[in-house]
Amino acid sequence: MDIREKCQPHLWLLTGTGEGHVFAESLLKEGWKITVSVVSDRASIPYEKLNLENLLIGALITEEEIRDVILKARIHQKGFHCVIDLTHPFAIKITRSISKICKELGQPLIRYERAIDNISNAFLIQKFSDLENYDLKNKSILLAVGVRHLQEALTFARNSGASVFARVLANPESIRKTLSSTIQKTNFAVLNPSASSNGKVEKALIRKWNIAGVICRQSGGSNEILWHQICLSMEINLWLLKRPSEFNQVNSVDSYEKLIKRLKSIKIK
Questions:
Q1: Is the dihedral of CA 37, 67, 81, 89 positive or negative?
Q2: Which of 22, 49, 175, 220 is the most exposed place for a label (fewest CB within 10 A)?
């Protein structure tokens, strides 16, 4: 019997990665009811044509906002069968809040964690201050770390003697925070990574700025894989900021198949 025909269990997906849309579409095909949360109008675009119960747009800033969504679902929609955390691996604050509220309310929670693949001889750093252990004097270094980490990475790379450049995502928040940082206005490029381009723009920037190494986050997914491939092909160094491990083993899965298996093991109330 189709799941939807039996009792239409409802899932809340909090998304912040490319897998969010893929998972939502697949879960809908299997009969689950889906509510999706995204942080911005731009992030909502891939979900607009899906047959969702709700599409919630805007960052969940406080624990009270998370609690409110769960409690309203219990009042109006028989509650969520499960909350699925598909936020970015480095989004520690939101994951910590989701975990806390779900525990308080007895709400089943599953976090998706991308598998970690060792696909190149990248240097793994625990924190940006570790860059000071490397000789970067007079070397051009490209940052692809996200705007939240930009100023910190910029400071320590400069302290190591590097000339620092950055690739910045093409959205208003990223551009605004980049402009408020101390990076030179001629030393960053605004673009969005594209798997279909095979890194052509990124490679062009590396050649233009004579980049000797790239610093990005160990976030998994297509973006990290792209940098591995680029750095290997162009024979330049790659530094990875180690992924936070706080939630790796807390009711987490690393594939869609494991997610489905875990969902089906949750007893419907």
A1: positive
A2: 49
Contact 109, 266 (CB under 8 A): no
The domain defined by 123-241 carries CATH number 3.40.50.1980? yes
pLDDT in tens, 139-167: 999 999 988 889 999 999 999 999 999 99
Residue 131 DSSP one-character state: G
Superfamily of domain 3-115+246-264 in CATH is NAD(P)-binding Rossmann-like Domain (3.40.50.720)
Tens digits of per-residue pLDDT, 204-228?
Answer: 999 999 999 999 999 888 888 889 9
Q: Where are the domains of the chain?
A: 3-115+246-264, 123-241
| CB-CB contact of 75 with 257 (8 Å) | no
**Distance between CA 252 and CA 255 in Å, rounded?**
10
For 198: left if phi > 0, alpha if psi spans -120 to 50, otherwise beta; the answer is: left
Residue 235: both structure tokens together: 């024979």
The rounded distance, in Å, linking the Cα atoms of 212 and 163 is: 10
Of 190, 203, 210, the closest CA to residue 230 belongs to: 203
User: Dihedral sign, CA of 96, 113, 171, 154?
Assistant: positive
**3-115+246-264 and 123-241: identical CATH topology:** yes
